[in-house]
Amino acid sequence: MQLKHKPLMAVILMTLILPTVNAEEDKDAQASSGAADATLPEIVVQADRDDFEARQTAPATRLVYGREELDRMNELTVGDYLRRLPSVTFTGPPGTPKDVRLRGMDKGYTQILIDGEPVPGGGKERQIQVDRLPLDIVERIEIIRAPTADLPNEGLAGTINIVLRDAPTTRVTGGRLVTGRVFGEKTHKDTWNVSGQYGDATGDVRWLFNASVGQRGELKTKSKSEEGFVAATGVRNSWKDEFEDERTTSDGLDFSPRVNVKLDGGDELVLTSFFSRTDETKTRHVDKFKYNTPATGADYVGDGTRDETEDKLREIARLRAEWKHKLAGNGSLSVYAAVQRGGEEKDKTTLEYNAAGALTKTAVEDAEQDEGEWFTGLKWSRTLGRHQLGTGLEYADKSREDVKVTTENGVPKTSGRGDNFDIREQRWTAFLQDEIGLGAAHVLTPGLRAQRIAREAEAGGQSFPGSFNAVSPSLHYLWRVNGRNNLRASVTETFKPPKFDDLSPLTETKTGTLTDPDKSGNPDLKPETATGWELGWEHFLPRHGGVFGANLFYRDIHDKVESRTALGDTRYVSRPQNVGDAGVWGVELDARPRMDIWGMPELMLRFNYTRLYSELVDSVTGIETRIKDQPPYVYNVGFDWQLPRWDAAWGVNYNYTPRFVKNPAEPLKLDVEPEQKLLDLYVMKRLSKTAALRLTAANLLDMKKDKDKSEFNASGQLTKKTLEVERGGPAVFVALEGKW
To answer: What domains, with CATH codes, occur in the chain?
Structure first.
C-alpha cells in the first residue's frame, strides 16, 4: 500500500513565501551592498541556554520548557507538569494525568519521544503513560507542533519530546527529598520520593549519574447509578447502584546515566542509558445495591460485593552508543546503535459475592506484554554557504508479544481480539533536509522523510502480513521580522499506523446487541495520514522577559479510523474502520510575560488557551460530526511571583476543560465527558544559597468527574441511563532540595 503525498502543497507555500523573501532581500540590498551574500551563523545548541532563546532560534515551531521552569511547581511526574502546557488534555482519575492528548485528539495521535526517539513498553496505542516518568530526571520538555524531516513523524496531533539530563561540563551535585499525602474520601495515601544527580568532567570524560526512587499513592472513589427502561413505555424496569473504593501504590525506580568521552581528532563517544521500573499494586472494593421495585424506587437492598486485586510491573530499558566524528569543511558524521526493551506483567484476581456473602465468581487474569527493539543508523550534516544540509539512514527491528489468559471459576475464557498476538516489524527510514538562510532574516527548511514498514502479525493461529511506504515532505519557514518578533509557517505530512490490536482478525463475543456488540479487529485497516498546516507569530520581550505566541493549525486527515457498530448476519459487531476524511483545526494562544511594564519584574504570568474544532465525514453515511474525544477548548492561567525580600517565591496554576460529548458519531450512545477543574499552588523558601524548602498543593478544588451516559434503541427510545461520580482527592507535598 502506497501513501501518496501532495507535492502541490510545497509549491503553494513557496508561492506565498518567496514574494515576501524577495522584498525583504531587496531592502537588505539597499541598506548594504554585502547583505545579499549574508549567511546565517552556525547555531550551537547549549543545554543551559534560555528557554525563550531556544524557542526563538528553532527553525520550526518548538515550545521549550527547561530545568528552571520545571523546578518551579515541584511536580513529581512528567504528567503532572504537562497538564499545564498549551493544547494538552488528559485521561485518568481526577487529578491524576496518565494518557496525554494534544489538540483534543485521542492519545494515539500524540507522539511521545525520549531524547528524540520512541520507546517500547507502551500500550496498544504505542504511547507510554507519562505519570510513570519522574520529572526530576528530565532536563527539558519540548512540544513540537510540526516535525522537521529528521524527527519521527507519527504524531498527527503533535509530538512531546522528553529530554533527559545530559553529562555536565563542570561538577554538578543535586538532590531532592519529597514527602506528601493524598487525601481521599475514605482514606489517605502517603507519597515519597528521593532523587539526585552527581556528575563531573575530568580530562576527556564527562559523566552524570541521574536517579530517582520513590513510592506514589493514588486514590479514587466512584459512585455509579444505572437505570434501565422499557423502551416502548418509558417505565423503569431496573435500578442498580455501585460504590467503588480504589487504592493504588506505585513503587518506582528510574535512572539515566550518561558518559561522554573525547577521542582523538575532536571525535566523541556518547554512551547513554535509561531504565524505568514501576511496580503497581491496586485494590478495588465495590458494594452493590438495587431497588427491588425499580419503577417507584422502593425496597432498596444489598446486591453483593466485588473485590479486585491487581499487581502490575512495567519496565523500560534502553542502551545507546553514538560516535560523533568531525569532518573537514565544517561537517559532522554520527553513527549510532541502540537496543531497548519494554514490557508489562499484570496479575489480577476478582472475587464476587452475593447479597448473603457467598462467593459466586472467581476470575483470574494473567497478562504479559513484551516489546523489544534494536536500531542502528547514521546522520551526516554540513554547512555549505547558506545551506545547512543534513541526511540520515536508519534500520529498526521490533518485536512485540501480547499474552493474556483469563479463567472464571477455573474455566478458561475465550480470548479477546487484543489478548494474544505476536507482531514483528522492520522499518527502513531515510531523510534529507536543508536549512537555508535567505538573507539575515529568513530561514527556509525543506525536508523529505521516507519510510518503509514491513509487518508480520499472528493471532489465533492466523497470520496476516502487511507493509506500507510513507513519503512525507515538510517545509518550514521562519521570518525574523526583527529581534523580538518571529513569523512562522509550516506544511508537513504525518501518519499514524493502526493500533496493534485493531489489526487482529479475531472476534470477541459479547451479547451481540446494539448496546453490547461483539468486538472485532480489521486486518485491512490503512494507516491514517494527515497534511498539517501551521501559521504562527511569536513576540519576545526584552531581557528574556517572556513571550507571547499565537498559532493557527489545520490537519487534513485521510482514512480516519473510528469504531463503528453494524448488524452482521444476526448479531451486532463493533470493529475499527477507515470511515472517511476529517479536518481538525484551531487557535492556540500562549503567554509567559514578566511584568516589568507594571514595575513588577519579580512577577511572571502564564496563560494559554486553545480553541478546537473538527469535522468528520463518514464515507458511508455522509454524516458530519466532530471527532471523538475532542473538547471545544482548554485553558491554563497562573503566575510565578519571586519575593527576594523574603528569599521566597510562590505560584498558582488553574487548568480548565469544559463538558463535551465524547463520541458525536454514535448518537444512540450519548456519553458526556465531565468538566475538569484543577487548581495547584506552591510556596518556596530559600534556606541558603544551595538549599530550599518547597510546599506544593495539588488538586486543591478536589475535582470530581460527573459522567452521565444515555443509551437509545434504533427508534431513538431511551433504554438505559447511567450517572457516575469520580473523585481522587487533593494532595500536599513538602520538598527539601539542594544544589552544590
So the answer is: 2-531+545-666+703-728 (2.40.170)
